[in-house]
Structures are given as structure tokens and as C-alpha cells.
Write a structure and sequence with these properties.
Blueprint (H helix, E strand, L loop, with lengths): L6 H13 L7 H7 L3 E4 L11 E5 L2 E4 L1 H20 L4 E4 L3 H13 L4 E2 L11 H20 L7 H18 L11 E5 L5 H9 L4 E5 L10 E4 L5 H148 L1
Parallel strand pairs: 4-5, 4-6, 6-7, 7-8
Antiparallel strand pairs: 1-3, 2-3
Helix pairs in contact: 1-3, 3-8, 4-8, 5-6
């Protein structure tokens, strides 16, 4: 039923309370408040036998030593719940307890129910939230000016509705989710709230009198649930424990916030110290980047040289090829010249023959002319 609260944490808190002497409650105080008075013998519940000290004048007397032990146990559990930041719902609708609960619980800012317990307040929590939203919507109408546009009858209806909702749900208006625990005064009168809490597996704390069954409650506190002094004493003790849990939570939050701020400040200081180093590194990077283009240009020239080198090699190769082809051409031209030489000799011979023939022709012509003249 109460697995949400580890028992080791509760025992640890209980031991701590004993060490710090937080148990402000004393045996004498409980006696004066009448916490030990139970109901008549004929009204008793046999399940309460372990918590009954004796019977006196037809009335059962509660063992206050067990009351103190159970009070410490419950206070430790409630303190742990409050320290975790969860809500505890207080329920007391009987006349003797309702004003005390409303006064004490309002100080620790916890939800409480002192009027009629509406059936399904926990099991049908969605409907409960709708009723609370309706109440807040009426409050909003009064602030945004729409309230003035309503006629007299509508205003009267809304005001009555608002009063009714405030009476039943006003104290739990800030409870946006189901509570982590529920504290009940007189489980016989608040049996519906107890059954709903058990159905939802919510841890239950209760003041249990001799006419009640303590087995129905997770953390029973055997005490007189009818006397106002008894209820006030028990509520003071439990509310002090819850206050301590809330203050511890607040201190832990403040400490964590301070640690976070210190870490941020240390980080800023480290950043400031690292800034010159980063600047030097950036300067070095800039220098490296500036040197990088130089190396790139050098590499580019090397690449160009390497690219030109193959070109020169190809040129030299072509020159070598040309040189190799040149002897071939000379070799080819040489036989051509040799072949052309006989032809030239023949032409010269023909010329010499012609030159030899021309004087002969001339002499023949001269002789012919002379013969003609003689004949004439």
C-alpha cells in the first residue's frame, strides 16, 4: 500500500528525529491533553487490543508509549513526503476537528477538506478539477468585466454557485493532481475518503480511536479523536515535522542554486583565462593559414614544373626522333642523288654533241651559200 515511501527512509528520519530530540511531545503533555482516553468498553474494536493499556470505569485507556512511537513514525514519513515536494491531503469534517485542521494546515500550505467529503473526490478527480475550473472561471468573469454585462438574476445564480463550490472545493483549489498521502481524523466518519485512498494506493495516516480498526490504515496513531486538545497536540507535532521537511527542501534548493551559480562563475573565470590562450591559438592558426597559401603556391609551382618537365621531355623526345629521322632522310636523298648523276652526265653529253653539231651545221650552211654564189 505504501511502497511509494521507502521504509529505510522513514526509519532513517525517525532515528534522526530522536537524535535531534525533535520529539517535543512528552508523556505528560499527552496526559494533560487527554490523548489516552478511549471509548466505552462496549464500543471497542478488538483490532485495537494491542494499543489499549487498561480498562477503567468502563472506558478503555490507550497506551501512550505506543502513541508516541507511532507519532514519531508518522512524523518521519510525512516529513519525507513534504521534503520530496509532494502534497498531503488533510481530511476532518467533524465539528471538533474542522477548525483546528483549517487553521494548522493553512500555515503549511497543504490542501484540506473540512466540509462534506464529495464522493469521488479522489477516484473521479477529473470531475473535481472541472468544478474547480468553474469556480476560477467565475472569478475571472469578475475581473475581465463580463460580470457587469450579466443581469441581476444571473449574477445571483453565479454568486450562489461560487459560494457552494468554494465551500466544498476552495481548500483544494491548488491541488492540481492527486495527493501523495492523506491524513484523516476519525476513520469511521471519513470511511469514504479512506476507501478512495486505499483504492488508489495512496498512503493513509489517521488518528485511530478504540472504536476503529487500525489495520485499515497504513500509519495509525492510537489517540483520542474526539477531544479538541488531543487533535491540536497531534496536529501541532505533525505540522512541525512537515514544516521541517519543507525548510530542508528549500535549503537544498538554495544550496543547489548557489552551487550552480558558483560553477557558472568558475566557468566564466576559466573562459576568461582561456581567452588569451585561445587568441594566441587563433593567431597561430591565422599564421598557419597565411603560410598555407605560400606552401600552396610553392606546391603549385612544383606541380607546374613537374607538368612542364614532361613537356620538355616530350620535346626532347621529338627532337631525338627528328634527329633519328634526319639520317634516314639523308640516306634516302643520297641514292636519289646517285640516280640523278647519270642523267646529268647524259644531258651534258647531249649538250656537247649539240655544240659539236652546231659548227658543223654552220659550216654546211656556209658552204651551201658559197656554192650558190658560184653557180650564180
Amino acid at each position: 500500500m505504501f511502497q511509494s515511501i521507502p521504509l529505510r527512509l522513514i526509519t532513517k528520519e525517525r532515528k534522526q528525529l530522536k537524535k535531534e530530540k525533535m520529539s517535543k511531545i512528552k508523556f505528560e503533555d499527552l496526559l494533560e491533553a487527554g490523548v489516552h482516553f478511549g471509548h466505552l468498553k462496549r464500543k471497542w474494536n478488538p483490532a485495537m487490543a494491542p494499543y489499549i493499556f487498561e480498562e477503567k470505569k468502563g472506558i478503555h485507556i490507550i497506551d501512550l508509549n505506543k502513541t508516541i512511537a507511532h507519532l514519531d513514525h508518522s512524523a518521519a514519513a510525512l516529513k519525507q513526503i513534504a521534503k520530496s515536494g509532494k502534497k498531503i491531503l488533510f481530511v476532518a469534517t467533524k465539528k471538533q476537528a474542522k477548525n483546528i485542521i483549517a487553521e494548522k494546515v493553512a500555515e503549511i500550505n497543504m490542501p484540506f477538506v473540512t466540509e462534506r467529503w464529495s464522493g469521488g473526490m479522489l477516484t473521479n478527480f477529473a470531475t473535481t478539477r472541472k468544478s474547480i475550473r468553474k469556480m476560477t472561471s467565475i472569478d475571472k468573469m469578475k475581473t475581465d468585466g463580463t460580470w457587469e454585462t450579466l443581469n441581476k438574476r444571473e449574477r445571483l445564480f453565479k454568486t450562489r454557485q461560487r459560494e457552494k463550490l468554494e465551500k466544498n472545493f476552495g481548500s483544494i483549489a491548488d491541488m492540481t493532481r492527486q495527493p501523495a498521502a492523506i491524513f484523516i481524523v476519525d476513520i469511521l466518519k471519513e470511511h469514504i475518503a479512506l476507501n478512495e485512498a486505499k483504492r488508489l494506493n495512496i498512503p493513509t495516516f489517521a488518528m485511530v480511536d478504540t472504536n476503529s480498526n487500525p489495520k485499515l490504515v497504513d500509519f495509525p496513531i492510537p489517540s483520542n479523536d474526539d477531544a479538541t486538545k488531543s487533535i491540536t497536540l497531534v496536529m501541532d507535532y505533525l505540522c512541525d515535522a512537515i514544516k521541517e521537511g519543507l525548510t530542508e527542501r528549500k535549503n537544498a534548493k538554495d544550496a543547489s542554486a548557489k552551487d550552480a551559480s558558483k560553477k557558472e562563475a568558475a566557468a566564466k573565470v576559466e573562459v576568461k583565462e582561456d581567452a588569451p590562450i585561445a587568441e594566441t591559438k587563433e593567431a597561430a592558426k591565422v599564421e598557419v593559414k597565411e603560410e598555407a597559401p605560400k606552401t600552396e603556391t610553392k606546391e603549385a609551382t612544383k606541380v607546374e614544373v613537374k607538368e612542364e618537365a614532361p613537356k620538355t621531355e616530350t620535346k626532347e623526345a621529338t627532337k631525338v626522333e627528328v634527329k633519328e629521322e634526319a639520317p634516314k632522310a639523308e640516306v634516302k636523298e643520297a641514292p636519289k642523288k646517285k640516280k640523278a648523276a647519270p642523267k646529268a652526265k647524259k644531258a651534258e653529253a647531249a649538250d656537247t654533241e649539240e655544240t659539236k653539231e652546231t659548227p658543223k651545221k654552220e659550216t654546211a650552211e656556209v658552204e651551201a651559200v658559197k656554192t650558190d654564189e658560184k653557180e650564180a
